[in-house]
Amino acid sequence: MTTERAMEGPDRIVSVREHFGFDSNLMVPAFSERDAHVPDVDEAYRFNPEVTLAILAGFTRNRRVMVQGLHGTGKSTHIEQVAARLNWPCVRVNLDGHISRLDLVGKDAIVVRDGRQVTEFQEGIVPWALQRPVALIFDEYDAGRPDVMFVIQRILERDGSFTLLDQNRVIRPHAHFRLFATTNTIGLGNLNGLYHGTQMLNHAQMDRWNVVATLNYLPREEEAGIVLARVPEMADEAGRQLVDSMISMAALTRKGFASGDLSTLMSPRTVIDWAENCQIFHDPALAFRLTFLNKCDEAERPIVAEYYQRCFDIELGGVGGDEPEPRT
Question: Is Ligase among this UniProt entry's keywords (predicted)?
Answer without folding.
Answer: yes
